[in-house]
């Protein structure tokens, strides 16, 4: 299969490339209308074709929207923020008390 290479200097190169890509796109074993008819008849033959339905239809609403993952990530961010604030407050208090001891001496 030939690779697509844009030609800039050749006259009519854009049109030639567009026509070549069009022929590749239209190279299909059956027409789109025939394919649509086949799939409609397939679904009718298999009574709704439940085997082709995506598995996302079987998920609960909170799993479908990934609320469990979002909740876990928010809990991790909240824990990190809480630990950061507490550690900064602890370090700040140590420096403040150290500064007061230096002034008292």
TrEMBL record:
Name the top EC class.
transferase
Coiled-coil stretches: none
Q: How does it sit in the membrane?
A: Single-pass membrane protein
Major location category of this protein: endoplasmic reticulum
Q: Which UniProt key words apply to this protein?
A: Endoplasmic reticulum, Glycoprotein, Glycosyltransferase, Membrane, Signal, Transferase, Transmembrane, Transmembrane helix
Q: Does the keyword Ion transport apply?
A: no
The catalytic activity of this protein is classed by the Enzyme Commission as 2.4.1.17
Q: From the record, give the transmembrane residue ranges.
A: 69-92
From the UniProt record, which GO molecular function terms apply? Answer: glucuronosyltransferase activity
Q: Name one GO cellular component term.
A: endoplasmic reticulum membrane
> What InterPro entries does the record tag this protein with?
UDP-glycosyltransferase, UDP_glucos_trans
Record Pfam families: UDPGT
User: Which family is this protein grouped under?
Assistant: Belongs to the UDP-glycosyltransferase family.
Its recorded name reads glucuronosyltransferase
Source organism of the structure: Myodes glareolus
């Amino acid at each position: 299969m030939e690779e697509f290479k844009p030609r800039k200097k050749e006259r009519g190169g854009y049109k030639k490339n567009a026509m070549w890509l069009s022929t590749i796109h239209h190279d299909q074993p059956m027409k789109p209308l025939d394919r649509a008819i086949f799939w409609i008849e397939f679904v009718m033959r298999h009574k709704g074709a439940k085997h082709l339905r995506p598995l996302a239809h079987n998920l609960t609403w909170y799993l479908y929207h990934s609320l469990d993952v979002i909740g876990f990530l928010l809990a991790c961010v909240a824990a990190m923020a809480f630990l950061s604030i507490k550690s900064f407050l602890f370090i700040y208090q140590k420096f403040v008390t150290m500064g007061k001891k230096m002034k008292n001496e």
